[in-house]
Amino acid sequence: MLSGYQIAAFDAAHLEAVQAAIDFKTKPPGSLGRIEQLALQIAGAQGTLKPAADPARLLLFAGDHGMVAEGVSAWPSEVTTQMVANFLAGGAAANVFARANDMAITIIDAGIAGELPDSPQLVRANIAKGTRNAMHEDAMSSAELSAALEFGASLAARAVEDGARVIALGEMGIGNTSSAALLAHAVEGLDLTQLCGPGAGLDAPGVARKAEILKRIAARRPGRLAPNDALAAFGGLEIAGMAGALIGAAARGGIVLVDGFIATAAALCALRARPDAMPYVVFAHRSKEPGHRLLLETLGAEPLVDLDLRLGEGTGALLAFPLLRAACAMLGEMATFASAGVSGKEG
Amino acid sequence: MLSGYQIAAFDAAHLEAVQAAIDFKTKPPGSLGRIEQLALQIAGAQGTLKPAADPARLLLFAGDHGMVAEGVSAWPSEVTTQMVANFLAGGAAANVFARANDMAITIIDAGIAGELPDSPQLVRANIAKGTRNAMHEDAMSSAELSAALEFGASLAARAVEDGARVIALGEMGIGNTSSAALLAHAVEGLDLTQLCGPGAGLDAPGVARKAEILKRIAARRPGRLAPNDALAAFGGLEIAGMAGALIGAAARGGIVLVDGFIATAAALCALRARPDAMPYVVFAHRSKEPGHRLLLETLGAEPLVDLDLRLGEGTGALLAFPLLRAACAMLGEMATFASAGVSGKEG
Fold it and tell me: Are A241 and A129 in contact (CB under 8 A)?
């Protein structure tokens, strides 16, 4: 996947130097837990002892899903476009959290069905106006998939080249918990019923109905699929965009902050194809959508926070981001035992 | 405890209005999980639909413990004063995280043994230069305890009167995980061995030795004690200061953000005496110190984050604070379905 994007391995000697610098800080070794791990990871990616998390940018990919026609969502497809308009107007949760935490957002029409006027804040992929209905045919052609992957990768790579240190990945797309569940099932063989949750608000009978529909959709392309094949069969354009963006950002040395269930499904596809990107990835949170826990366990990922979120839009990534900022500040600004004149342990 | 500080109950009709406002926002109801609960709590405390978490201030209480002479800590007592000097110089983790998250710090000598020059940033309680050795006598006289409680309460009350919306409580004090364990044991009857952990860095034999010492100290005042009696017997001046600050802040309508094990032990003493303060309290994090989990469960508290921290200094509160800021922004700034023209659920 995206073999033109080469990803550098972290330098082992540098990581040792970073760990030593962390251990000299005025605190018991290891006492800042996950913050120390984050500092090591970000400093490893950036090849420095003074890492930075700012500026940071959320790439917010929106797309529509043909399979919504099968009744998998509690909400009509038109909400995707309406919510993109809400992002552009600055009124959504993602906008509010980005402002609260001093992050930038790029709003991306990765393939929405509705029409929106041009806006300087809106980036358009111009690939398709939503996916086809995966019940009857592949959601995307392989050419569309390649275009979506390349679009996401080049967008993220450019964002890092333009200065972003952290690329957060979030999404909006009615029906995309269904797409994410199908991808996790096809790529990893995880149980569809366990992957299937309420999404944006189905009740229990709705979830059971959704699981039955997803099983029928999955049966069109049974068995384990390679990430590319799974994305073409069941993917969303916004999911392919995020998968590409993960690889593109990592290839430029950017830290990738992955949001919830759908972003993690995109990360799964990207990382199974490109495990060399894993050192650059931070999983922001564990969402309430039940499939997310399963997917994180599969990836061996321990997310930073668990706040019972189930909104998407990158909200979990935006909420977790200050921890990355704090980790960088810890490494860059904290005094050492020697500089502060603090005694060591006894005995 | 501190009966002169009256605490107002939240208004039930106002809480209903806040919940309705949260539910009208452009997101599936409940989909922002803990953030919605935080918004409700802060708006409830402030009696408004446009709550604010800024400005926020960490009250960082430092104190020394006579029982360190018994060998309960891996670090010498002098580190308390050295770390206060580090706070004043801006080089500690607490300083770095406060700067990263735009919070203010008040550094408080609640009763340290060492000498420090005057500084405009240092507030002195002038009660005692550390506690007495609780193995042989009460750590504080009842007059000292009253002074420490009143000092903390008036400091926090003044901070809220001066504009702080959130008062974070953190501490520094070599030996104070021992004091916290003894308090939790005496006030709640929790098992001392389970409450006893490595603190700032004991190894396993050290933890076992610490537990034996704590059992002997506890035996001097056996059985369940009232919060005041427990604080006098085993408390630290910094712990009493935090207990007072919790009540003082709540009495002025401030949100209290409680840090780790020691701050939670202070909160336990305050809340068992003054349960009317509970609605104002947010527990920031679950630390790696094993007693903290037990204490949080006892209080029915679900902390915001779990980052394997075990440093103290208010670091967990400082790291969790942006979630409060985001919660306020969500309620104050997010669009409603009606204002954004977003469709509702189908069916």
Answer: no
